[in-house]
Every structure is written in structure tokens, then in C-alpha cells.
Amino acid sequence: MKTAVVTGAAGFLGSNLTDRLLGEGYRVIGLDNLITGNRVNIEHLRNEPRFEFREQDVTEHIAIAGDVNFVFHFASPASPIDYLELPIQTLKVGSLGTHNTLGLAKAKGAGFFLASTSECYGDPLVHPQTEDYWGNVNPIGPRGVDDEAKRFAEAMTMAYHRFHKVNTRIVRIFNTYGPRMRLKDGRVVPAFVGQALRGEPITLFGDGSQTRSFCFVSDLIDGIYRLSQTEYHEPVNIGNPNEMTIRQFAEAIIEMTGAKSPLIEQPLPTDDPKQRKPDITRARTLLGWEPKVDLKTGLKQTIEFFKGRIAEGPDAR
Ligand SMILES: NC(=O)c1ccc[n+]([C@@H]2O[C@H](COP(=O)([O-])OP(=O)(O)OC[C@H]3O[C@@H](n4cnc5c(N)ncnc54)[C@H](O)[C@@H]3O)[C@@H](O)[C@H]2O)c1
User: I need a labelling partner for 304 at 20 to 30 A (CA). Which of 45, 98, 162, 317 fits?
Assistant: First the structure.
């Protein structure tokens, strides 16, 4: 049986990836220091003999006995609220955490998979973003902690590939949503769905004309799994190219929840990107991958999930 180590396994994407890897027959060792993750996300695996959870900060040395075939490095504060509150931890997990996990992959002769981000493109001057675009990043702005951590992580990953011949992959993840996101993580989807379900006003940053494209989590995880099965080492964008304005997105949520929430405008955060849309030609060609879940279907599942969280009361995460 193949063994995969997943860092950030108690997080939104790490837990969904863990489910997929178990489904593909892997044994999974999940590492997480629970800084933004939650044991609830892996609670359903409590009696799964092929899953083991270890509370571990991956910026510290990682010791794992026995064979490891793949290391998936997904640990990092990921939402703007999280990385603004945890700037040093974000930089550390992108730098020291990536170094440690690459070291583990090298020592075990394992494959390595880095969860990078569309944040590498910053506020992009090329639209849609292709993987060969180098980005427009403000290194010293508040968002720079995420952007630069991931850019460093990519550089480190390519260095381990070129110098130590580690079999690496890099995915640049664009906005992804779905069950197991945190209600209060500040990302657009939980924020708007939470406000709509509570009948509160929906807060747009600026006039809501900035664009985003939202990928449903099962599509993303499928792209990630397919990429892990290739021998392709340069970054690959995975995301949904169906672009819409934030205002249109808020309106779709209002329609689907039947909420009466008004839209109100708030000042734009610093360095908020005006446009984001992946060019997925590389993923299409290389992986035969295409997002399949349309916004309505994905939002329906997500709204149901958040209804359950809200029913837990005002302290629901
Ligand atoms: N969700 C998205 O839309 C998106 C977009 C781009 C990139 N990503 C990347 O995907 C990865 C997962 O993001 P997510 O959305 O699941 O976020 P998340 O916050 O739900 O999960 C991240 C997990 O990493 C853990 N973690 C953080 N620092 C750690 C450390 N030092 N040691 C051990 N565990 C640590 C957290 O506790 C959490 O469980 C991140 O690397 C993120 O940058 C996500």
C-alpha cells in the first residue's frame, strides 16, 4: 500500500485531498498544527485504519518512520483574514515548512506536491493568467506574506527538483469553495453565504466590480490528483475560468438562498486584485482536466453545509 503524507490535513483542502487519496487506496498520515484547521474536518476518519493524524507544526523537524511514497504540502494559513493575522506563521510555513517537507520527500525518495496559489500572480497585468506570467506582486504589502511565501516555496521546490532530483509537482490553486470551509475565514464564499443565511446585509468590497472565478472543491481535488500522477514539474493552474464580478456572485447567492439581504459597499482592502481568472490550457492539455461542477450545483452543496454550521449557534466556526 502506498503511503502519502498530507500537511494541513485538518484544513479545507487537505481534508478533502485526504478523502480522495484514501479513496485511491493510499494510507495517509495527516500532519496539522490546527492553527486554522479543525479536527471536525477529519472526524469522519476516526475509525479509518488507513488514516493517522498527528498534531505537528511542519516548520519543526518532521520524523516519520517507514516508507513514504508522496508528500503533499498543503499546510498554510490561506484566507486573507488568516494570513493578515498570522503573517510570520504564513511566511514560516511557506519557507521552513516547505524546506522540511521537501527534506522528508528527499530522504524517503518520495514524490512531492506543493499547494501554491494564484496569489503568485499578485494583482495581475496579464489576463487571464498563464503559468509563464511572472506576476505583479507587492512584496511589502500586507498580502505579500502569502504571495512571497508561496513564490519562495515554488523556488525551493524547483531547486530541490533541479539539484536533488526530487520528483516534484506544483499546483497554482485559484479561488476554491465548498464544504469544510470555515464560516468566518473571511473568504468571499463563506462570508456571503453566512450573511445571506442570517439575513444580514452582504458586504461588497468596493463596488463589487472586481472579478473572481470560483472552482468547486471536488473539481480542484480531481485536478490535483491527476497532476500528482504525472511527471510534470512546472506549475499548473487549477481553477475554474468562469469569471464573474463579486456583485454578480453576491446576487447569485441571494437568489439561491432566497435571502432579502441588501448589498452594501465597504472600502477595498490594500492590494486587492482587480481581476483573477486562470488560463487552464496547460491543465486541459496535460491532465485532460476540466471543471465539471457548475456554480449552481456547487453553491447548493456549499449552502447546505453552511446551514448546518450556522445551526450550531453563534460560535460556529
Ligand atoms: N482554498 C483556496 O481557495 C486556496 C487558494 C490558493 C491556495 N490555497 C492553498 O491551499 C492550501 C490549503 O488551503 P485551505 O484553503 O485548505 O486552508 P485551511 O486554512 O483550511 O488549511 C490549511 C491547514 O494548514 C494548517 N497549518 C498551517 N500552518 C501549519 C503548520 N506550520 N504546521 C502544520 N499545519 C499547519 C492549518 O491548521 C490548516 O488546517 C494552502 O497552502 C493554501 O495557501 C488555497
Answer: 45
**Angle between the N-to-C axes of helices 144-164 and 87-108, in degrees from 0 to 180, rounded to the nearest 10:** 10
Closest atom of ligand 1 relative to the 185 alpha carbon: 19
User: Residue 11: CB within 6 Å of ligand 1?
Assistant: yes
Task: Tell which residue, 122, 142, 152, has the closest CA to residue 134.
Answer: 122
The pLDDT assigned to 4 comes to 98
Does ligand 1 have an atom closer than 6 angstroms to the CB of 57?
yes
CATH 3.40.50.720 in the chain: give the residue spans.
3-176+216-238
Q: Is the N-terminal amide bond of 241 cis, ω within 30° of 0?
A: no
Which superfamily is assigned to 3-176+216-238 in CATH?
A: NAD(P)-binding Rossmann-like Domain (3.40.50.720)
- What CATH homologous superfamily does 177-212+242-276+293-311 map to? UDP-galactose 4-epimerase, domain 1 (3.90.25.10)
Task: Kindly report, residue by residue over 100-138, the tens digit of the pLDDT.
Answer: 999 999 999 999 999 999 999 998 999 999 999 999 999
40 lines ligand 1 (CB under 6 A): no
Q: How far is the CA of 258 from the centre of ligand 1 (A)?
A: 31
